[in-house]
Amino acid sequence: MPVRALLGLADVAVAIFVVSAELARPLYRPLYEALSRLALVRRLEAGISRLPRFAILGLLAVPFFGVEPLKLLGVIWIAEGHLWRGLALLAGAYLGSFLLVERIYHAGRAKLLTIGWLAAAIGFSARVREALLARARATRAWQVAAAAAGRARAFVRRLLARTARA
C-alpha cells in the first residue's frame, strides 16, 4: 500500500477518534464534573501535583495497565456473542480510563508541560484536534447534529424544571 494511502487512512482514523470524543463529551462531562468536586479526588490531585514531573508521567500509565485488559475482555465477550455485556464493559473501561487519565493530567499538567518533548507532542495534538474539529464543524452534518443536540438539551431542561416543580 502506498505511503500516501496509509497517511490518508491515518487521517481518517484520527478524525473519527477526535470527532467521536467531541460528540461523547456532553455525555461524560457531568460525571467528570461531579468527580472533580469530591473531596477525596481533590486530595489525590493535590498529592499528584506535589510529585516530580516524571513520577506524574509514570502515574499516567497506571490506568492503561489496569483498564486495557478489561477492554480486551470486552472485545472477547463481543466475539463470543455477548454483545451487550461486551459493549458495557468496553464503555465502562473507556470511561474509567478517560476519567482517571484526565484527572491525573489535570493535577500534574503544569509539571508535565516542563518536559520538552511532551509539551511539543501535546501542542501538536491540540493543533491537529482543533483543525479536525474546525473542518467537522463546517459540515452540514455537524450543524444538523448540533441543532438536534441543542433541542434535546432544551427538552431535558424543560422536563427537569417541570419535575422539580412537581
What would your notes on this structure say?
The chain is an all-alpha fold and 166 residues long. 91% of the residues lie in helices and 0% in strands. The protein contains 6 helices and no strands. The chain has helices at 3-37, 39-49, 53-79, 83-112, 116-137, 140-165. α1 packs across α5, α2 crosses α4 and α3 packs antiparallel against α4 (83-112). The termini are far apart. The mean pLDDT is 83.
Report mean pLDDT, rounded to a whole number.
83
SSE sequence, one letter per element: HHHHHH
Helix content: over 70%
Number of contiguous helices: 6
- The portion of residues forming beta strands comes to under 5%
Distance N to C terminus:
63 Å
Multimerization status: single chain
Unreliable spans = none
From the helix content, strand content and strand pairing, which structural class follows? mainly alpha
The best one-word shape is: globular
**Rg from alpha-carbon coordinates:** 19 Å
Tell me the total number of β-strands: 0
For the largest beta-sheet, the strand count, sense and barrel status come to: none
Features:
single chain, 166 residues, mainly alpha, 91% helix, 0% strand, globular
Please outline what is shown here.
With 166 residues, the chain is mostly helical. It is built from 6 helices and no strands.
Furnish the topology, listing elements before pairings:
Blueprint: H1 3-37, H2 39-49, H3 53-79, H4 83-112, H5 116-137, H6 140-165
